User: What shape does this take?
Amino acid sequence: MNRLRIVFVVLALAASSVAAAAPQQNKHAAKKVSCEACHGVANPIVAPKVEQCSTCHGDYKKLKEDTKNINPNPHDAFHLGNGDIRCSLCHKNHQESTLLCNQCHVQSRKFDIRVP
Assistant: This one.
């Protein structure tokens, strides 16, 4: 019985922290895009896959072209490989976006790029 209570408390705390974090700053909802459009209905806690993002935003080839005037072009980095890096590593829908590049490129090589 005690174990069941502990499990219940842990699950309740985990659920409340996820719920509290999720809709803080929802850029897609502001544009009337539903949660299901990106996350599906199976697991709205997990970040969408690249394939889901590309249905609206295009593939890496299109993104590379769209961001060609940004120097350096964040979608034209050899680190991206075949575009297998998750969009959500930089683009955050429920919190402030970050530039993943700057985790390694620091100090004089740090990039000053705004990530939407």
Notes: Residues 7-23 have pLDDT under 50 and may be disordered. The chain has one domain: 25-109.
